[in-house]
UniProtKB/TrEMBL annotation:
Biological process (GO), any one: peptide transport
Nucleotide-binding as UniProt keyword: yes
Gene Ontology molecular function, alphabetical: ATP binding; ATP hydrolysis activity
Protein name from the UniProt record: ABC transporter ATP-binding protein
Family: Belongs to the ABC transporter superfamily.
Database matches in PANTHER family: OLIGOPEPTIDE ABC TRANSPORTER, ATP-BINDING PROTEIN, TRANSPORT ATP-BINDING PROTEIN
Transmembrane segments: none
Stored InterPro entries: AAA+_ATPase (IPR003593), ABC_transp_ATP-bind (IPR050319), ABC_transporter-like_ATP-bd (IPR003439), ABC_transporter-like_CS (IPR017871), Oligopep_ABC_C (IPR013563), P-loop_NTPase (IPR027417)
Keyword ATP-binding: yes
Origin organism lineage: Bacteria, Bacillati, Bacillota, Bacilli, Bacillales
Domain ABC transporter positions: 5-248
Keyword list, A-Z: ATP-binding, Nucleotide-binding, Transport
Amino acid sequence: SDPLLRVENVSKTFRTRGKKLRAVQNVSFTLEAGKTLGIVGESGSGKSTLGRMVLRLLESDKGKIVFDGVDLTELKKNKLRALRQDMQIIFQDPRASLNPTMTVRDAIEDAMAIHEIGTKASRRERVVELLERVGLPYEVQFAYPHELSGGQLQRVGIARALSLNPKLIVCDEPVSALDVSIQVQVIQLLRDLQKEFNLAYIFISHNLAVVEYLSDEVAVLYLGEVVEQAPADELFKKPTHPYTRVLLNSILKIPDSPENRQTMVSIQGEVPSPLNPPSGCAFHPRCSFATDACKTVKPERKKVSEHHIAACHLVQ
Ligand code: SF4
Ligand code: MG
């Protein structure tokens, strides 16, 4: 059967002050209903741009995005609204996406009203149910955003997304701003809700450890390009691209064996500016394995195994 979401060769270039910024380049993936694709990369790697393009909150320059059998890139703007209900987003800073003058109840009810779901009375009932489901006390519905903690607000954001019965939620760094103990709770909540409602997630994070718990598949982005993509267990057991290994080492996930120690790499330097990406392999200035060829020849994405790809000259 067709996947819920198919993204093919999607690219986006921004023009800023006469310069080209290639934010996302030729990214492809598929996502099945009820599954999670983790997208990992440092800031400026194009993760959020990619997430927004999937929802068509931002237009892609080229490529195809097919959601539930509909090619979004071909869809007229006025046809988007019905689909918007099926595709929701939760942000790192839920405060920014909540109207400060609206109570929690009104904010969630309003989202449902825009999509003409139920009556005012039934929507209010649903708000109460949803808040309970995401672990918030009854009284929170009467609160304003400034009266709530970051963790509570994120739960409100989740409840609001759920109120529209979506099939896909783009989670853009949803726990990055929260305390670690709260992060774990929110991630567990997202996982429980996924099972209960058969939700598909695109889970965006700079932190591989956060992504590991939820993801079925992981794509690692570096300067707008997927440098490695694999089923999550394979990526964590057999990271192949030197950048992925750097990310994994930084969370101490690689078992300490002589073989792994030999392949340990340390991160060097800052992320290069996407306005002026390095030649050849964009990772070469930071890569412990870089050869002269890496400075001039851009590595193609190659198969490491059937569902595992990496873009590095070391992959034969
Ligand atoms: Fe490192 Fe070369 Fe592989 Fe790029 S292609 S990741 S520089 S070894
Ligand atoms: Mg971002």
